[in-house]
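ugh ok fine here u go
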Amino acid sequence: MEITIYIDKYKNARYNYFHWRYELNVVYKISLAFCFACITGLLAQLRFYLPGTPVPLTGQVFGVLLAGILLGKYGGISQCMYVGIGAFGVPWFSGFNAGFAYIAGPTGGYLLGFIFAAFFIGFIIDRYIKSRNFFSMLILMFFSTVILIYIPGLIHLYLWMGASIGIWELLTIAVLPFIFGDILKTVIATLIATSIIPKVAYGKEVDS
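structure:
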C-alpha cells in the first residue's frame, strides 16, 4: 500500500513537471534552454580521442538527448544557444574550445546535428503520447543519433577532409569507433525518458 502511494506521488510529480514546463511562458522556456546549453557544455568536456580519428568521444550526445526529453522543442533552442554562444567565444565546446574556426573544423557537422536531434526528439515527445513507450522511444533516440547527428557530421567531415576519402574509410574514422558508445547512450536516455515522461497528455498531444 505504501509503495503504491509513493508510485502515485512519483507519477504526479513527473506530470506536474512536464505540464508546468509545457505551460511556461517563452522567457522561462528560454532560460531553461540556456541552462541545458550549459549542461551540454559541461558534458562536452568529458572526452577522449580514439586512435585514427579526429573526432573525440564525448558526453555531448547524452546532453542533446536529455535536452529533447526534458525541454521539448526548446531542447533544439538549447542546442542553438550552445552552438551560437560557443561560436562567439564562450569556451564550452569539447576541450574548452570556442569560435567559428572550431565549427569549421572536423566536428562542426555534429554540432549542427545536435540542433536537429534535440528539436526532433522534443517535438515528437510533446506531440505524440504513443512515442513515450520504450520501443517507440528507443527508435526515436536511435534515429536522432544515427540519422540526425551522424549524417550532418559525416557530410561536414567528408568536405573538411577535401572529399578525398571513400565511404568506408569515412565510416571507419567517424562512425564505427563511436557507435557502441552512442548506442549505449541511446539506451540509457530511453530508459530515463520512459521512466520520467508521463504516459498521459500534459499539453496539446494529437493522439490524446
